[in-house]
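Example is below:
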Amino acid sequence: METQTIYMKPATPSKSANITGWVITILCLLFLLVDGGMKAINAEVSVKGSVALGWPESQVQGLGIVLLLCTLLYAIPRTAVLGAVFLSCYLGGAVAIMSRVNAPYYFPIVFGILIWVSLYLRIPALRAVFPQKA
């Protein structure tokens, strides 16, 4: 019986996989930082959109701060997986809210998938956890 651990000789990702992972990560970070920043500074368009989804206006700034903190964890390579877990929770809440108001909710689902795909392409330990047989 063969025992696999994620710490034994982790294969480094190929150069193209690493670059693709970082490009996806940067695109996700840019969107999340803008979204969280606009909520954190109570930008009118962001507040109106959140209120339309049923959030009280007084809570929009707190949501922005939470999103910025999760995004910062995702941006730091050592805490990227923890940040992705927190962002997945945040996006799951977005799916629930959008589903409740009968709005299309595919965007947060696709965005969450992109967050994890970017990490899968960059982090060898995730490839060991979710191996693909060729």
